Request: fold
Amino acid sequence: MKIKGLTLIFVLTSIITFWINFIDFKFNAFWIFSNKADKAETVIDNLCLSYIAGYIFYFLNVYLVEKQEKKSILPYISFKTNLIISNSNHIIKVLKQDVHLKEFYPTLKEFEERLKYDNVKDLKTYNYENHNLVSFLMIRRNSTVKTINKILKSGKHVDDELKSILFSLKDSLFLKKGFAFNLPTFDIKKFPDYDLVFFKYFQDIERLDLYFHKNFKKYYLLNYPKHYRRKLAGKLKR
Reply:
């Protein structure tokens, strides 16, 4: 149960405890409690006091501690998550030869076209001018795998949905060590054979992107100075 529900029960039990101990109108006013009002009040009062004590303990020692932990760890996880997305966006910018690109999830048909030999043989790998497409993809692969592992090591703050996406990425052929274009000897003429590998990988990246905007955006902004957050928030809009 979420903290709002637990807090509501806490308020109700506090009211009942106050009523039993400080208000004259007692349970014996109800016929159902005739001759048993004192026992009923004692039992209910004890239950309420037990809940109140348990709630206070949970709030101070679990909820507040976890909230503080989230403020510390989730900005880090969100930053690393966005790094995976940015690395992947860079790949699409290279494939489409558009450094100002804003649409990062091509269809399978688009990948078929972009991976043709005539389109990949002379690609400019922005910021990696000394690398061809194969070595560029290998650099991006190594960086992404390391980042995924760092996020997964964050433990309990990585929920099941995020784990599912990250493991799907990690197990993909796109990131498989020594697979096809993850070898320096790969023949770029064979890129068209792997359009489906690219497409499926970027489907998972899109899932990660959606997860990031739904769950991590506010934590990601905490990595930056307050005066810059509003400007950055505008850039992060989907």
